[in-house]
From TrEMBL:
Species per Swiss-Prot/TrEMBL record: Triangularia setosa
Organism lineage: Eukaryota, Fungi, Dikarya, Ascomycota, Pezizomycotina
SUPFAM superfamilies, per the entry: Terpenoid synthases
InterPro entries according to UniProt: Isoprenoid_synthase_dom_sf, Squ/phyt_synthse
Protein name: Squalene/phytoene synthase
Length: 369
């Protein structure tokens, strides 16, 4: 029997296709996660090769979390160089702040990093409950806030300010990675704090040749000059530059020939190396069943309150074995500092590393950083 087709105007609504219903409900499929993972791996391979190498040794329970975190870090680190003014950068960071809220509300946007983070956090909640997940949210928002404060690429006021920045960015990324395992150990967080500070300082030194280079002109379709991508910047701490009698303008004009540059770089690199030495000594003492010879300066701060079990030296060796891959960030930082020293602390002359893959393998085999 013939039945006429009734349209929406006849009082019926056509059911939305399944993919549209899933999109509205925030459902993330296995295919979505696979595509998001592939996106992040590709970004790291071409934009942060050290992280791309280290990821292979991160515990499997933190594997995808590491991919998402490092890709997010890569995007935010590039913001000051890729936007024409800080306002655009702040809008992007606000997008990520809103995205974090949506991820923890169970409704992530269709963005690869967000999808992968959502998948990891949903799995973590199923394994360990909401407590650790709430710590991760706190650290992610702190990470975004710190990145936002430094969008304008201004020099750090002091070497201590650079350390604070590194604690709230690179060390915080390591705290989150440990939480993905999940692991709550004051000793592992203490190690991550020193290593993260070293990594943040190294990232600042590594960026000198890039940020101090002349800015690039932006041209429209007609060839008209639309302005510059950014202004040259030098992020070395002001107190260190004053001690070395180094002027920003000299670096912008003369590059590696600027008077005082190598002295300033040496002072900053020494602080990074001090953190690595401290971490290595701590690791050695914990392995021998002894506690660190100094207190963890961030104990008692938000999300750094530990149970008595988390203080245990007896379980420290087992924690180190379980989370050692996370500590390999120290190997990459140390590798750069060695190459910087070989270049007589001239950041413009540092050569690329071909030894890092072997160094990571050796460090993992011998559990040394």
């Amino acid at each position: 029997m013939y039945r006429p087709i009734r349209t929406a105007g006849d009082g019926l609504k056509r059911a939305a296709p399944r993919w549209a219903r899933e999109y509205r409900r925030g459902i993330v499929t296995d295919a979505d996660v696979t595509q998001a993972r592939d996106y992040c791996l590709n970004q790291l391979k071409h934009g942060d090769y050290e992280a791309y190498l280290i990821r292979q040794f991160v515990p499997r329970s933190a594997y995808d979390g590491y991919h998402a975190l490092r890709t997010l870090n890569l995007e935010l680190a590039r913001l000051p160089e890729t936007v024409s003014n800080p306002t655009i950068g702040r809008l992007r960071i606000q997008f990520w702040r809103d995205t974090i809220e949506r991820i923890f509300a169970g409704n992530p946007p269709r963005e690869p990093i967000a999808i992968l983070l959502y998948s990891v956090i949903a799995d973590l909640k199923a394994r360990a409950g909401d407590g650790i997940a709430s710590s991760i949210k706190f650290w992610l928002l702190r990470f975004l806030k710190t990145r936002e404060r430094h969008l304008e690429n201004r020099p750090f006021v002091s070497l201590a300010a650079l350390e604070d920045y590194s604690e709230n960015t690179y060390a915080t990324l390591m705290y989150i990675t440990l939480a993905f395992i999940p692991m709550q150990s004051i000793h592992m967080d203490h190690l991550a704090s020193h290593i993260g500070k070293a990594c943040g300082i190294v990232a600042t030194l590594r960026g000198i040749p890039v940020l101090a280079a002349p800015s690039t002109l932006i041209r429209g379709p007609s060839g008209a000059n639309l302005g510059n991508t950014r202004s040259p910047a030098l992020l070395l701490p002001l107190d260190v530059m004053a001690d070395a009698d180094l002027k920003e303008e000299d670096v912008f004009r003369m590059g590696p020939n600027a008077e005082g540059l190598q002295d300033a770089v040496f002072q900053v690199a020494t602080r990074a190396n001090d953190h690595l030495i401290t971490a290595r000594e701590m690791l050695k003492n914990l392995r021998l069943g002894r506690g660190p010879d100094h207190d963890y300066e961030h104990e008692g701060e938000a999300e750094h309150v530990y149970s008595s079990a988390a203080h245990s030296v007896e379980t420290a060796d087992a924690d180190i074995k379980r989370g050692f891959g996370v500590l390999l960030e120290a190997v990459a930082a140390g590798d750069y500092l060695k190459r910087l020293e070989s270049a007589n602390f001239d950041p413009f002359m540092v050569r690329k590393s071909w030894k890092l893959p072997w160094s990571l393998w050796y460090a993992l085999k011998h559990e040394q950083i």
